[in-house]
């Protein structure tokens, strides 16, 4: 488990002799990805630059909601480095904004969640999804369709969380409720209704939808107290789980922000013009990291030969326009509506799939 290095001669002691030393693609960068326990990761400057470019791309705001004010640079890289080190990841999504329809869910969120899950699966990590009890059947159908469409290699376990006692969240996240034995290393919320300061859940129009939302926020609050669990929130309006980290900016710059702002923080907050784009960017960034020799060497603690780049596994897991189009059609058939307009058209957040979402996917790829 240990490797040693020393300056000034830059000798490096490891398990394989290598006199044929060459640069691993640019200068390595060191990034802190966790304070408790203290954990740093290493990545080449070149890979970090690519991920920064992905972050800039998803920051465009075609809905003109003011998301630029919520963005913090480097959050995408931090989140993806932490995910790269994780062994088991729990993802949550679901925003029941259309409370007068059945199902009330909007179609921003699930595609992004599945894009992240697909890449994590390809990287050999354990993935599960947690969602509202009332939406279990809907999510089961979405996951089954995603397997049929070739988005997922295999089905993902689907969980629900209910608060039954003060330590429900701890019991859910850790084996026998023991904080020393967490079941997950990383929690990801993408376009998931987030709790406001008054304990309610609001859509963008200030309507309280608490009766439709299970208290999955408690898992993120509990994770703050459990060493070794990192959290990421992906959102586009400030009322999503994890956006508590930028709540002051939400209150100041987002319409109805003083009421709807989510109060629950995540370690990393990825802000995008549309949340699905954040999911696509995370999938692409994980791919960039896996292809970065500097990061790969660090992941394997400089032991053994470099892993042969089995791109055949990872490339098919990336989002693609054809896959995302089929998934959106499936969501429309299941009655899952566009966020802004509640229409059952090929659109997300009121923006047409073709030439807005399709173009974003192509740019990210």
Automatic annotation (TrEMBL):
Which gene holds the coding sequence for this protein? Dglucy
- Write down what this protein is called: GLUCM protein
Q: Which GO terms label this protein's molecular function in UniProt?
A: D-glutamate cyclase activity
Q: Which residues form the D-glutamate cyclase-like C-terminal domain?
A: 54-364
Q: Which Gene3D superfamilies match?
A: TON_0340 (3.90.1640.20)
GO BP term, pick one: glutamate metabolic process
Superkingdom to which the source organism belongs: Eukaryota
Checking InterPro entries in the record gives: GLUCM_C
């Amino acid at each position: 488990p240990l490797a040693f290095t020393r300056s000034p001669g830059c000798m490096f002691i490891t398990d394989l002799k290598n006199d044929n030393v060459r640069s691993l693609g640019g200068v390595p960068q060191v990034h802190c990805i966790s304070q408790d326990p203290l954990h740093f990761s290493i990545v080449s400057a070149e890979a970090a630059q690519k991920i920064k470019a992905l972050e800039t791309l998803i920051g465009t705001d075609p809905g003109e909601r003011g998301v630029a004010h919520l963005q913090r640079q480097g959050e995408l890289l931090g989140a993806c480095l932490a995910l790269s080190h994780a062994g088991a990841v729990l993802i949550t999504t679901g925003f029941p904004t259309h409370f007068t329809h059945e199902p009330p869910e909007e179609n921003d969120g699930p595609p992004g969640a599945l894009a992240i899950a697909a890449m994590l699966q390809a990287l050999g990590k354990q993935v599960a999804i947690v969602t509202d009890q009332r939406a279990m059947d809907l999510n089961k159908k979405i996951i089954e369709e995603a397997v049929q469409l070739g988005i997922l290699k295999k089905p993902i376990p689907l969980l629900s969380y209910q608060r039954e006692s003060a330590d429900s969240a701890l019991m859910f996240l850790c084996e026998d409720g023991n904080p020393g034995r967490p079941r997950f290393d990383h929690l990801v919320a993408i376009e998931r209704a987030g709790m406001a300061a008054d304990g309610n859940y609001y859509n963008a129009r200030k309507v309280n939808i608490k009766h439709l939302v299970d208290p999955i926020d408690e898992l993120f609050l509990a994770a703050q107290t459990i060493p070794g669990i990192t959290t990421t929130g992906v959102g586009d309006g400030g009322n999503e789980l994890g956006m508590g980290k930028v709540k002051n900016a939400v209150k100041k710059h987002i319409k109805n922000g003083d009421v709807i702002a989510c109060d629950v923080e995540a370690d990393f907050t990825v802000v995008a013009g549309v949340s699905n784009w954040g999911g696509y960017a995370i999938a692409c960034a994980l791919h960039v990291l896996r292809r970065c020799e500097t990061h790969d060497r660090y992941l394997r603690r400089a032991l053994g030969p470099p892993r042969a780049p089995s791109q055949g596994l990872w490339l098919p897991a990336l989002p693609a326009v054809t896959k995302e189009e089929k998934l959106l059609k499936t969501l429309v058939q299941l009655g899952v509506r566009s966020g802004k307009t509640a229409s059952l058209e090929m659109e997300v957040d009121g923006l047409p799939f073709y030439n807005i979402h399709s173009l974003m996917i192509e740019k990210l790829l």
